[in-house]
Amino acid sequence: xxxxxxxxxxxxxxxxxxxxxxxxxxxxxxxxxxxxxxxxxxxxxxxxxxxxxxxxxxxxxxxxxxxxxxxxxxxxxxxxxxxxxxxxxxxxxxxxxxxxxxxxxxxxxx
Length: 110
Description:
By secondary structure, this protein is α+β, with helices and mostly antiparallel strands. The protein has helices at 2-17, 76-85; strands spanning 26-33, 38-45, 49-53, 56-60, 65-72, 88-95, 102-108. The longest helix has 16 residues, at 2-17. The model has no long low-confidence stretch (mean pLDDT 94).
């Protein structure tokens, strides 16, 4: 499903900006960037090609990617630190049994 969602970006660019991306020449790639603690989504060109967007030609080498999305991963503690640094006070956190997901209650700092 994520691959279809990601490739839909090119379809929208075609439709809304008059581009001519051939979706079949791009593939979805996702990987975890440990250093930045995020999952990155990319669309990789399968071939060397030129695409037109808004009347401008854009060259892609085979394997060259378009970085389309970041999905950051936080621990309860690291999210709390981020919240405090943004003017919020963590009040409570609820997690699933494995600690993979959380819902966090925050209050605006005074």
